């Protein structure tokens, strides 16, 4: 095997076709994960009995086990569950009708949810309690105060961490090769083994991921600047 | 897919998986050692702002934080022998484990260097100035004054790095290293009881990472024992939150989504 620099470019072109898959997996898992995370964080902050314990258990379990195990558990466990339930209730849903990428969506959303929950929780706790009290004192209801006063500030505080989570999920999406979804990593594997040029193919994949990561960081920096335009000094 | 669920398999698999726990911990331990050394080597040029090396260190950190660990594993597994061949070193016969530990070590090193940098900058500048004022050399000031304080600040982040590393080692199976995840896959395909194997795998990971967290919490308490009896009312650390909040922020800050993974 001899290093072939020109093949890096060839591989890069071929890998471009797999970028959308990676981005879709990242976007879906981050979006659903954010919603799960928000609910989990609120459950824990408001210490709702039973539910907050479940939320804490969920976060601990997910953060204590590798993302790969979540994916494998969902991949092998969900079809079993779905088939058992449809047999029980006579549904027409078959586990084989779930697309492969669906497993990735579900499992990564669950993973992202736990990580996001901690990010959002720390953001919410960082907002000064006086802000909420001030909102109440001008007659806002709790949902109003949360939506108008607390969330915007909490989001501004946790933006860097959210961007880290997004990057984490982007990198984590490489695991989908285990459930045979063709993302950048899996495509690199294919390109590498068909041409027998492993180093070059993975180098190209690394370059793409590096570029995507830098892009996310750049976008975050722009958003952060925008948010801070309206937010000079004070709580955040 | 597979055989019907049978809870007894979960317990049956536990001892079988535990037999490969040593391999997982070996990877974690080995790469932590490499990571700490690399982390220091990378952090020092940036802390002391050494021209050229500063930029190189920044690129190094950016690369390792900007690419997935899985890609890095393959990259080093296939690339390292070729690069070293240019230096007339033949390591293509080296065991896979060596590549795995080197890759995880370099990867952790990048995160470690950021941790070291952040915690050293978090120590009050006056501390070093005071050390110089009583006549310490810069080496003495660093090892005697900065390091102990910085270490206490770094522990929460460090603890998260270790746990993230533990979870990342689950990817080593993709290069054929027989650690816990690889073992679970083998057990699963032997008996077709995949789900039981993975539940038992998840349980072990959970217990190991919780144990590591507890151990490092004890370490943090020990390192901070001077702080808690600080009666002057002045806080020496810039991180002014309560330790539980600081840990939470640290855990979020490590920036490894699963990446964390």
Task: Give a summary of the structure in a few sentences.
The complex is a heterodimer of chains A (236) and B (261). With 236 residues, chain A is an all-alpha fold.
Can you tag this structure with a few keywords?
heterodimer; A: 236 residues; mainly alpha; MetI-like fold; 9 helices; flat; B: 261 residues; 11 helices; disordered C terminus
The CATH C-level class name of chain B: Mainly Alpha
* Main sheet makeup of chain A: none
Uncertain runs of chain B are 229-241, 254-261
How would you describe the shape of chain B? flat
Number of strands of chain A: 0
| Total number of helices of chain B | 11
Give the termini separation of chain B.
Answer: 27 Å
State the CATH topology of chain B: MetI-like fold
Q: For the report, how would you describe the main beta sheet of chain B? A: none
Assembly classification: heterodimer
Fourth-level CATH superfamily of chain B: MetI-like
Residue-averaged pLDDT of chain B = 83
Write the layout of secondary structure elements.
The complex is a heterodimer of chains A (236) and B (261).
Chain A lengths: L4 H12 L2 H27 L5 H14 L2 H23 L10 H27 L2 H9 L4 H31 L11 H12 L2 H32 L7
Helix pairs in contact in A: 1-8, 1-9, 2-3, 2-5, 2-7, 3-5, 4-5, 5-7, 6-7, 7-9, 8-9
Chain B lengths: L6 H12 L2 H27 L3 H16 L2 H18 L9 H27 L2 H9 L4 H31 L11 H12 L2 H30 L1 H4 L14 H11 L8
Helix pairs in contact in B: 1-8, 1-9, 2-3, 2-5, 3-5, 4-5, 5-7, 6-7, 7-9, 7-11, 8-9
Describe what this molecule looks like in 3D:
The complex is a heterodimer of chains A (236) and B (261). With 236 residues, chain A is an all-alpha fold. Chain A has a domain at 20-182: MetI-like fold, CATH 1.10.3720. Chain A has 9 helices and no strands. In chain A, helix 7 packs antiparallel against helix 9 (198-229). In chain B, 75% of the residues lie in helices and 0% in strands. Chain B is built from 11 helices and no strands. In chain B, helix 4 (69-86) crosses helix 5 (96-122). Chains A and B meet through helix 3, helix 4, helix 5, helix 7 and helix 8 of A and helix 3, helix 4, helix 7, helix 9 and helix 11 of B.
